[in-house]
Amino acid sequence: MDSAELDTFAVDVVREGLAAIASTSAAQLKVNREFGEHIDEVYDPIVLDYLRGLVGAGRVTADLAAEIEGLYTEIERSSAGLTWQEEDLRIERNASSVRRWREMASYLLREFEGQVHAG
Fold first, then answer.
1. Got the DSSP string for 90-113?
2. What is the pLDDT of residues 28-41, one digit of tens each?
């Protein structure tokens, strides 16, 4: 993969990760059961590895990256100790945390799209 292809791939991974969190409970459960194109589960932290590369390439600001990392950190802390079944149940019940993360991911996805399209 050349650098342009890697950049495109990284954008796709971050986009898919944020879109998965921003999606409906049914869509989130589908990702968890069938996997996405680039991610293995709704809250897959692999997104952060690609996000850091985009910051290094100047495609995403460090401030936006910090907000996205903060979302994933909050999710990770909240999910610590949960089985995948408990996590799916929380999604299925559309818990307040899931709704809050969905709203934040929607906002962050819009900001992300604005930056990667501007670059």
1. HHHTT-HHHHHHHHHHHHHHHHHH
2. 999 888 877 777 78
